[in-house]
Amino acid sequence: MAIKRKADIVAEKLKSEIINGTRPLGTRLDERGLAVQFNVSRTPVREAIRQLASIGLLNDFGRSGIEVVRPDAAAILDSFLIVSELEGIAARLAAQRMTIDQLRKAKRANDACSNALSVADFNSANMEFHNTIISGSHNKMLQEQLKIARPITFPYRHHLTYVPGYTKKSIVEHTEIIAFIEKGDSKAAKAAMCDHVNLQGEEIISILQALDHA
User: Fold this and answer.
1) Over pLDDT 70: what percentage of the chain?
2) Is 116 helix (H, G, I), strand (E, B) or coil?
3) How many other β-carbons are positioned within 10 Å of the β-carbon of residue 25?
4) CB neighbours of 20 closer than 8 A, spacing ≥ 6?
5) How many folded domains does the chain comprise?
6) Which one, of 104, 193, 100, lies nearest residue 142 by Cα?
7) Residue 19 and residue 33: Cα distance in Å, rounded?
8) 38 and 121 housed in the same domain
9) Of 23, 43, 68, at which residue does a domain stop?
10) Of 68-72, 138-142, 192-196, where does mean pLDDT reach its minimum?
11) Residue ranges in the chain assigned as alpha helix (H)
12) For residue 188, which of 10, 26, 124, 176 sits 20 to 30 Å off, Cα-Cα?
């Protein structure tokens, strides 16, 4: 159990570094270096690598090394398409099942997005907003599917935060989603969340340009 806990800690820290760009796409990693960095043996590092490889953030080539995944454009778009549909279903169910406390929590998270003083603050509040909607679906199977599907999109969501006007647009869309959920309009809530999560025109171009320079 101690090894498992250490592995989880390493996995969370490494996942955070990948998401926030500290470990850029395509970066090569090695077990020994990670073990030194996180002050653990190589056993929990191996387990952490397996965890992150299973959710698509790392490529584990065995003796040939480890690499932060650098998917092509089609893979990125497919990932966002799948996640947008799943989060759309979560919003649809939330419109039917979300509690008053969860709705208030989603509103507070969106207010925190509006008042964020840094990209890190916005990303944290944005994650809280989406997590609350997903929890509000009260569907454990859906939540488990999203736990697997979402992480591969996180580095790109983080990058989009730097696109001029994106955060303001995101806050407006959050507000619309909350309004549909509060009215119990499940169909509109699903459509709004799908549009919000899925990549659109200029956002796709921005992601592809970032990949070209990674």
Assistant:
1) 91
2) coil
3) 17
4) 120, 123, 158
5) 2
6) 193
7) 19
8) no
9) 68
10) 68-72
11) 2-19, 31-38, 42-54, 73-97, 100-115, 119-136, 140-149, 154-160, 166-183, 186-197, 201-212
12) 124
pLDDT category of residue 196 using cuts at 50, 70 and 90: very high
Output the domain CATH number for residue 57: 1.10.10.10
- CA-to-CA distance for 194 and 202, rounded, in angstroms? 17
Lowest mean pLDDT among 36-40, 164-168, 185-189, 203-207: 203-207
3-state secondary structure of 147: helix
Q: Give the length of the chain.
A: 214
| In a shared domain, residues 169 and 83 | yes
CATH code for position 136: 1.20.120.530
Q: CA 21, CA 2: separation in Å to the nearest integer?
A: 29
DSSP 8-state symbol, 57: S
Burial class (CB in 10 A: 0-12, 13-18, 19+), 66: buried
Condensed to tens digits (0 to 9), the pLDDT of residues 124-143 reads 999 999 999 999 999 999 99
CB 174 within 8 A of CB 87: no
Question: Higher model confidence: residue 75 or residue 34?
Answer: 34
Phi, then psi, of 77 in degrees rounded to 5: -65, -40
Question: Please, are residues 180 and 192 in contact by the beta-carbon 8 Å criterion?
Answer: yes
Report the alpha-carbon distance of residue 35 to residue 45 in Å, rounded.
Answer: 6
Contact between residue 67 and residue 58 where contact means Cβ atoms under 8 Å apart = yes
Q: Please give the residue range of the domain that contains residue 23.
A: 2-68
Give 89's pLDDT tier (boundaries 50, 70, 90). Answer: very high
